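Journal club prep, notes for RB
We'll compare a predicted complex against what the paper describes. Inputs for the NAP case:
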Amino acid sequence: MENVSSVHLLTGATGFIGGALALEILDRSPAHLLCLVRASVSQSAQERLLDSLTNAATAYGRSDLEPEIRARCHALRADVGEPDCAIDRLPNVTVQAAWHVAASLSFKLKSRPSTLRHNVEGTANTLKLAKALGASEFNYVSTAFVAGTTTGTILEQPARDPTATNNPYEESKIRAEMLLEEERDCTVRIFRPTIVIGHSKTHAATSLAGLYAAINGAVEYRERKIEALLGDRPLHALGDPQAPMNLIPVDRAVENIWRIRESGSTLRIFHIANATAPTVSELNDTLCEAIGIRPPVLTDNEECLSAVEKIVAEDPRNRFQRPYLSTRRYFDLTHTTAAIGPMASSHPLDAGTLRPYVDWQLQRG
Ligand SMILES: NC(=O)c1ccc[n+]([C@@H]2O[C@H](COP(=O)([O-])OP(=O)(O)OC[C@H]3O[C@@H](n4cnc5c(N)ncnc54)[C@H](OP(=O)(O)O)[C@@H]3O)[C@@H](O)[C@H]2O)c1
């Protein structure tokens, strides 16, 4: 890589968004990617990187990028949660830009110390390494849910209260953003995606989180025949039917991230959100129809739940999803629109366009 004119540092390339972002960068620029990757028991970091990016390229209908993956993607064995990212020796390379996407998506209270280590210390460690390698810009993929417990219109403004959150994941992402607020040497951009779903054309995703966890939960509900315990009564669950469910396809998310960077905007925080998001009720109906179960009746009143429904509601996965199903939040897009225009955030997802994403996951099994 020594004679290469442009190198970008990237974390999280073996994951859902980082993999899609790697393909976007390969497609849109001649840059080489230096990727911080953990090795596994059976595979080296480089093998893992090539396998996962090739898999992502296949899933997104971009097998044409395979030669670029092999030629321009270089793994550096690292763990961002460890001091100095657990790298013994700095590679002899200068990087122009850093993209920090890696994170733990665990929301469990018992995993809080590990989530904070991966996401907060992980951000500090990656920033330190990026600067040591000469990066003049640090692009951080955060989450729109640094909004925490705030409702209503959420502005593209700094998040400063790590105590007003629904889980340690949100807390960790706020603390990571706060840490970056102190940074003065590098240009920092913070991208805040909402809930990322599969590719807009192939509908494939390399993720088991977010929408995919919800689909798997609903399938499990069907398989365990819980509906039969309810008799004629449809399941009642906690949620607000009219709350927006801000889903955005992965290719549109990474395209917007890249275009904002290329726009030269001097703004700092950008929502990567859908201006035309469906509602909880629309998603609920589409998902249940695809799975073949009766759509639950959504209510904000816990007293309306039967004993069985209370057990379903208290399942940790359902408890985790509750704030996202019952809160009306509207992600303001002023900065993103100023950088790349209003159409970039318009991804209408009505029942007809949502269904193939659900079907794709059901076929994956
Ligand atoms: N998915 C969403 O809907 C969504 C929405 C908003 C924001 N985000 C944000 O987007 C980012 C990526 O999320 P994702 O959905 O792509 O997650 P993901 O599929 O779980 O990928 C996480 C990536 O981070 C890497 N990673 C985690 N800990 C690491 C460590 N200690 N050292 C090195 N690499 C590490 C993982 O590597 P391994 O392969 O080794 O595990 C993997 O490549 C996160 O920052 C998340 O907060 C995601």
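Talking point for the session: The mean pLDDT is 95.
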